[in-house]
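Q: Got a minute? One more chain.
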Amino acid sequence: MTRSSPRGKSPGRRSPGRSPHRTRGTPTPTRPRTPKSTPKKETSNRSPSPGRSPSRAKSPSRAKSPSRGRSPGRSPGSAKKGKVASTVHLGRIVNQDITTATLNSKTPCRPRVLTVLIYFWKVNLVLSLALYFSVSLQRNLLFLHKVVYPLPTSWYTDLEYIFGTEVLSDYNVENVELDHLRGYSIERSGGEKGDIIFFHGNAATRALSWRVNHIKLLAENTGCKVWAFDLSGYGDSGGYPTEAIVTQDAVNIYDYVVSKGGKKKKVYVYGHSLGAAIGAKLVKARGAGIKGLVLDSPFVNGTQAAVNHFSTLTMRYTIPFAGWLIRSGMVDKFSTDEIIAESNVDVLVIQGARDMEIPVNVAGGAVLEEGVRRLRKEGAAKGRGGLEVVLFEGAGHENVHEQQEFGKVVSKFLKGAGKKMKLHMPKFNKA
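A: Always. Here it is, folded:
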C-alpha cells in the first residue's frame, strides 16, 4: 500500500525545487538567495479523506494564486506558480497587443478620413436645415445685433470718449434720442450744405472707433451735418431688428431730421454694407424728399449675399441643395437692386476691390450694376435716377473711407445729385 505524504501529496509528484534523490534524513541543501525571493509555501496538515485517492490530493502547486495580476518575481507562490503567473501575465500582454493590432487593422487611415468627412457633411446639413427653418437664427446671423462693442453701453453717450476733445472743439456734436433709438449728430462748424443720414452695417454700434472716424470724415469732406443712429436691437437702442422694423426706424429718423430743418436744405442717405440696404429701403419709402443715395460696400440683395458669403462656403460645396435652402428660406431679403432700378433718386456705389465679405464680382457693385441695367431694360427707364459705380483698388470692406479720393468722390456726387443726373453705368471708375 502506498503511503501518503503528510503534506497530502502523491509520492509520484515532487515538490518544485527538491532533488529527486533526497531522502527524509538527508539535509536540505542551501539555495542561493535571489534578489526577488519567494515566500515559503504554506503547508497543509490535513490528510486526504478516506474515500479520496492520495494522488488526487490537492497540492500547493495547484492552489489558486493569491494575485493574478502580479509580476512573476512578486508572486507569493512557488517557482512553478510564478511560471504560471508569468504565463498569465504574458498572456494578458499578448492579448492586449493582439487586440490593439486588431483595432488598428479595422480602422486604417482611409476609413478614418471618410468618417471625418461624413461627420463634416452632417454638420453642414444640419446648419443648412437650421437656416431654412429657423427665422431667429437667420436674423441673428444677418444683423449680428448681439455683438455689442464697445462695452459698457453707457459710453455711447460720452461724446468726449467717442470723438475726443480735439474733434469736439472743431465740430458741433450732440446726443439724439428718438423714441427707443439712440444716436448723435456731428457737424463741422459753419457747415450748412445739407444733412446726411448715416446707417452703419451689422454688428457693433455707432461708437465703434472706425465708424466714428468714418462719420467724422463725411462731415469734414462734405460740409454736411451727419446723423448716426443705432437702429432697433443695436447698442443702447431698444427693440429687435427685422427688415420691417429697421425700415420703419429709418423712416422715423428721416421724418425727425426733416422736422429739425432738414427740409430747407438737402437730405442725403449714406449706408454701409447692411446699412446700404436699409438706406435703399428708406429711398423707396421717402424717395421724393431724398436728393441722393450713397451705397458703401453694398450687396445686391440679402439672399444672394447670404449664399455667396464666406461663412456659407462649406455648406454650398458639401450640400448640393444648400444654396436653394438659404435662398428659399430667407425672410428678410433686402432687395437693393430692385429698389434702385425703380427709384428716381441718383445713386453712387463705392466699393473696395479687396472686399472679401461682399466680393465685387459675386454679390457687390459689379453684380448690382448689371442687375440694375437688366431691370431697367425690362421696364421703363424714363424718370429713373442716375447710377455711378466707383471702385477703390486698395480698399477692403471697412476702409473705403480711408482712401485718398474718398472725400473727393463723395463730395462731387452730392453736388451733382438731384440735378437731373444722367443715367450712366460705365465700367468701374478706378479711384
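A: The beta strands are 171-178, 181-188, 195-199, 225-230, 267-272, 292-296, 346-352, 387-392, 429-430.
Q: Perfect, thanks.
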